[in-house]
Amino acid sequence: MRPSKRAADEMRKVTLERGVVRYAEGSCMVSFGETKVLCAATVEEKGPPWLRGTGKGWVTAEYSMLPRATHERTRREVTSGKPSGRTQEIQRLVGRSLRAVVDLTAIGERQIVVDCDVLQADGGTRTASITGAWVALHDALKWMEGRGMLKGANPLKDHVAAVSCGIVAGNPVIDLDYVEDSGAQTDANFVITGAGGLVEVQGTAEGAPFSEDELMALLKLAKGGIGKLVTLQKATVA
Predict the structure, then answer these.
(1) Rounded Cα gap, residues 125 and 37, in angstroms
(2) Are the C-beta atoms of 16 and 91 separated by less than 8 Å?
(3) Which residues pair with 190 in a beta bridge?
């Protein structure tokens, strides 16, 4: 039995709330159980310098964790002068995940930045960020569409969501909370599109190596979870 009493394929309660930031072009408060992340999308009229003159835009992300998002206060990274390696890895992951489902030419030479701020952390902050960031991005693109800023069709080609899976006490399980994540023998994150395409798979053995069969078991769990997340995304933006 999992500490949360959930079945192996049972996710925590997931909620997506749109339009929670007054000034952002798109926003979403996402909760995976007790993990809560605020995602806000900003449309900037100027794209990155390296894309100047190409007619293409850019979608990127920034990620941060509030000092009391965890059991003990975490020092703000701004006081150290630069983001940690973990922060840089996660925000690059979120950006890659969003770009995988966007036609960058359709947004013109502009940049959309999605800020993902963790208000409360209980495992799965990166997967929650990706799932909520898609909703914020969707609404930012709708905002652009309403102002005639897009070239042609909707640049959002598909949904994208993410979920964690792992092997805990010898059993493959989905959507690990902090208690499970801290003691997992294998920890993995899956980013998958609505059509089932794999955007990124991160898998790490914390002790003994995991087998190919175990990896396939985790992937099966992840696909089931992503299907539920995409259904929730669709209902949220309907």
Answers:
(1) 7
(2) no
(3) 163, 201
Query: Residue 124 and residue 9: Cα distance in Å, rounded?
Result: 15
Please give the pLDDT value at position 128.
98
pLDDT for 153: 78
Joined together, the tokens standing for residue 73 give 């206060």
Global pTM reads 0.96
Rounded to the nearest angstrom, the gap between the alpha carbon of residue 218 and the centroid of all alpha carbons in its chain is 18
Strand order in the sheet with 14-18: 14-18, 26-32, 35-44, 111-120, 58-65
pLDDT of 158: 98
d(CA 130, CA 96): 10
Among the listed residues 56, 230, 57, the one whose alpha carbon sits nearest the alpha carbon of residue 140: 57
What are the residue ranges in the chain where pLDDT is below 70?
none
CA 139 to chain centre: 16
- For helices 212-237 and 125-146, give the axis angle rounded to 10 degrees: 40
In order, the DSSP letters of 112-137 are EEEEEEEEE-SS-HHHHHHHHHHHHH
